[in-house]
Amino acid sequence: MAVVSPTLTLERRLLREYTTIIALDEVGRGALAGPVAVGAALMDAAGARHRVPEGLRDSKLVTEKRRPDVAARAEAWVQGSGIGWSSAAEIDQVGIMRALGLAASRAILAVSASGVDLSTTLIILDGNHDYVSAVHPERLTVRSIVKGDRDCASVSSASVIAKVARDTLMQELHAQHPAYQWDRNKGYASQEHRDAIRAGGLSPYHRASWAIADAPTLF
User: Fold this and answer.
1) Which GO terms describe its cellular component (predicted)?
2) Which domains, ranges and CATH numbers included, belong to the chain?
């Protein structure tokens, strides 16, 4: 199957109606441990005239070895970027969907702090569900785009930037709790991760409200 390269076709069309676009994508929704992260990438009409960086893809389509380089080029290419986080404890407290909304809202605030006018900005969100509007303190215009991380270069940028940031964090947390092998599984449900939970219980970074012991193995 041929790999689809993201383009700026949709962004260029939308930027005829809006001053700026903030593209969002989440990482870590299905993990057993660690925070969920939402990456945000800012795009304006001038930036959308630039060539898409070589190798930019949805983060799931970029090898782990190449992701840091691709993420660095994506950060240099977009007009601004940021990451919003929601911790495992917050996920336990409010549920994953509201936690995603909180992380997305924080990512938007991080990007817009430089003076972006959100009243003339379109938020494009990978997937089919708007999880940010109900949480963000200001009124937003949001468009959910199925396969946005595959097809839209701005969303691909948000995806790979968030993925590298979260993977780096999980590698740092691995040093505190090496039994779970977060340097390898990044908090997802590998067999080794589940075996370590059964043997040693949960860490403060696990999502304790989830049925972790019975979670399906994802890889």
Assistant:
1) cytoplasm; ribonuclease H2 complex
2) 9-172 (3.30.420.10)
